[in-house]
Amino acid sequence: QVQLVESGGGLVQAGGSLRLSCAASGRTISTYHVGWFRQAPGKERNFVAATAWSSGATYYADSVKDRFTISRDNAKNTVYLQMNSLKPEDTAKYYCAAEGSRYSTPPRLFDEYAYWGQGTQVTVSS
What we know:
By secondary structure, this protein is mainly beta.
């Protein structure tokens, strides 16, 4: 079983940047698809980005494409989400999630991920 811990959230002005980290323990992250999701108060948990375990291919929600970059450092057992050109609508709690290789590509639905971190808050002021 893999445990996930997010960090790097905070308060930033619109147009600024943050880098979120998702540190894994218990198992090597290289054998898992890893996704980032976000949830604003009163809203659903939505897909943001994901990286595939085998190919390293990356996937993004349209709303963050060209602004966010997901990457993984298997040596550090960590996945990152670099967020640039942040907008107030990016404000949410961000979660990382991991799923084993039963899917050929990373799922985009939150309920298809088995392992979750506790989340980190990102607030973007206008």
